[in-house]
Amino acid sequence: QWLSDRKKRALQKKDVDIRRRIELIQDFEMPTVSTKIKVSRDGQYIMAVGTYKPRVRCFDTYQLSQKFERCLDSEVVTFEILSDDYSKIVFLQCGRFVEFHSQHGHYYKTRIPKFGRDFSYHYPSCDLYFVGASSEVYRLNLEQGRFLNSLQTEASESNVCDINPVHFLFAMGTAEGKVECWDPRTRNRVGLLDCALSSVTADTEIEGLPSISALKFDGALNMAVGTSTGQVLLYDLRSSNPLIVKDHHYGLPIKSIQFQRQLDLIISADSRIIKMWNKDTGKIFTSMEPEHDINDVCLYPNSGMLMTANEAPKMNIYYIPVLGPAPKWCSFLDNLTEELEENPESTVYDDYKFVTRKDLENLGLAHLIGSSLLRAYMHGFFMDIRLYHKAKMMANPFAYEEYRREKIRQKIEETRAQRVQLKKLPKVNKELALKLIEEEGEEQQFSKKRKQKNLPSLLKDDRFKVMFENPDFQVDEQSEEFRLLNPLVSKISEKRKRKLKILEELEAQGQEEEEEPEGKASDAESSESSDDEKGWVEEVRKQRKLLRQEEKLKRQERLKEDQQTLLKPQFFEIKEGEEFRSFKDTAKKQKLMKETLEDRLKLEEKLGTLNVSDTTVGSKQATFKLKKSEQQRKQQEAEKRHRQERKTLRRSASHLKSRRGRGRLFH
Predict the structure, then answer these.
(1) What is the rounded CA–CA span in Å between residue 223 and residue 604?
(2) Are residues 96 and 191 in the same domain?
(3) Which of 144, 318, 636, 667 is the most exposed place for a label (fewest CB within 10 A)?
């Protein structure tokens, strides 16, 4: 992401992955920002609106290029394609304007009483339903060309609306977190859902009242609702309780909801992430986080292609083969994805190495933090792979030899594994392996008698294989942690063995299992457990006492070594031109540095190197005199004595002249 455009173009000659990137539609972008994106019903045209200046662009998928562009007077809130192609379009603009476009261009423009936020088209009656900053739902009949009586709702404001494509039920989401359903035939409300209350679950943290920000029907009975706090609720219209409540965990308003029927998925998006999840179980299928904020998501019908409108000039196109085939106008994508899966190529990250701060300290490159050679990313940095190899060679020149020896040893071990093997303990953690083998044998005998399945062994589990092969995982039995925990582990193993024996005796006698399988009364069990605890506590105390004694012995040994070591005299060289006084000067300087700024300033005032005075404005003025070296001080004193001597000589000479003049006059 930090690569410049020039660097990316230069990489196209080398990187196969960059050369294989395809620009499906030429100039598929907006000047600044794209806000909404839709596909016509025949699938041939993709239309998008954005800024700046406000405009609409139509792209022809058969020609893979832009068909036309039209500029508008104000920004578009949302739009709808009424025909199968681009010949009839309705735009809802932010200035309360509703603009109609035909195939040739602008057709008609009108206004609604309040600011609109969304609208839906009712095909049987040719009515447009507008919702916005009002309690009314405005109806505009396109056949008669006039406004009809509005629907009066209980909401103060409405954010979104949708019409069911099967039975044409009109639903609208309000700012109070409710969904009102209306029958367009009778113009009466037939249902009310309180989604704000249903979105609050035990796992969600909500600040403020959730309002409805997205609404979408699926078939005749399903409806998905998105809230402004980042929850998606899936409803069956026959129930007032949601089937599933899915939280995005970002606290951002849901911008778009789409249904993918081939895999029964719901695609929900907020401004940061696109999540795909199963509508029956709520299990996440996958998720995508684009580089820029998302404004709208459009799923191309009957395919695995996804398009997004972003807070950036470029509109993104994603193709996910699992969701469905590629559209017929770019069917070559299927072949390309198969080739990419068969032949994985290197990526741009092969030229960089990810290192943590600890790795940089080991390589001696911690001083490069903050420079252009390191790029901060997550919990570490990206650095050039060539610089990394050079630094590693300088830090550890014999690393390759060690790596080569380790690889040879691993190859030999692999060839040995193919031979007929006898049961023997591993080289690392032999005591632990022996303990596991014994426990496994006991559990196998017990499970055979009870006809139970054997649990998998740790020695055969690949996840723990390294623990018995790598010497770095060797258990240190002399460590303090092991010695303190060992009494507890041994007591637990003894208790387990005792329990197994008691269960075997009970089965041999043919007794039925009870709540207390040990066959003892709870008092006896508690007394036994208390005895075990006492013994364990005594053992831990004993180990702690031994650890203290060992630490005391180590301290005594260190003291003896310090006493035996002879202190050698140290010599210090004095700089030229300086005079040695004593070691007390350094101690005085260190003591002075520990003082506060106020105390140091007072001391400087006493010495005469600092002069603090008030100005006429009311502020303070501080004048500092730099400290002079001993040589400079001596030179100044000599100059001062020389000036005084010259002064006395001048005075004596003038005195003699005056006396001679007086004598001549008298004579």
Answers:
(1) 80
(2) yes
(3) 667
CATH number of the domain encompassing residue 76: 2.130.10.10
**Same domain (yes/no): 62, 160:** yes
Quote the pTM value.
0.52
- What is the span of the domain harbouring residue 257? 23-342
For residue 455, is it within any domain? no
Q: Quickly list H helices, 419-479.
A: 430-450
Task: Count up the domains in the chain and report the number.
Answer: 2
Same domain, 75 and 192: yes
Do 361 and 259 sit in the same domain of this protein? Answer: no
In this structure, is the dihedral angle defined by the CA atoms of residues 479, 482, 485 and 487, taken in order, positive or negative? Answer: negative
Segment holding 89, helix H or strand E: strand 89-93
Q: How many helices (H) and strands (E) does the chain have?
A: 13, 32
Please check whether residues 328 and 378 belong to one and the same domain. Answer: no
Distance of CA 543 to the CA centre of its chain: 45
Q: Report the pLDDT value the prediction gives residue 599, as an integer from 0 to 100.
A: 82
Q: Is residue 513 part of a domain?
A: no
> What φ, ψ does residue 245 adopt, rounded to 5°?
-120, 115
Same domain, 213 and 134: yes
Higher-pLDDT residue of 380, 339:
380
Q: With bands split at pLDDT 50, 70 and 90, how would you rate the model's confidence at 375?
A: confident
377 belongs to a structural domain: yes
pLDDT at res. 449: 58
Residue type, 441: G
For residue range 384-395, list pLDDT tens digits in order. Answer: 888 888 888 887
Q: Is 430 helix (H, G, I), strand (E, B) or coil?
A: helix
Q: How many CB atoms lie within 10 A of CB 383?
A: 21
In a domain, 18, yes or no: no
Q: Are strands 188-194 and 305-310 parallel, antiparallel or unpaired?
A: unpaired
Residue ending a domain, choose from 318, 342, 366: 342
pLDDT band at 520; cut points 50, 70, 90: very low
Encode pLDDT of 145-182 as tens digits.
899 999 999 889 999 999 999 999 999 999 999 999 99
pLDDT average, residue stretch 546-550: 81
Please choose, from the candidates 580, 44, 94, 35, the residue with its C-alpha nearest in 3D space to the C-alpha of residue 312. 35
pLDDT tens per residue across span 595-652 = 887 788 788 777 767 766 666 555 666 676 666 566 677 788 888 888 888 888 888 7
DSSP string across 97-153: EEEEE-SSSEEEEEE-SS-EEEEEEETTTTEEEEEESSSEEEEEETTTTEEEEEEE-
- Are both 265 and 378 inside the same structural domain? no
CA angle 222, 165, 187 (to 5 degrees): 95
pLDDT of residue 489: 60
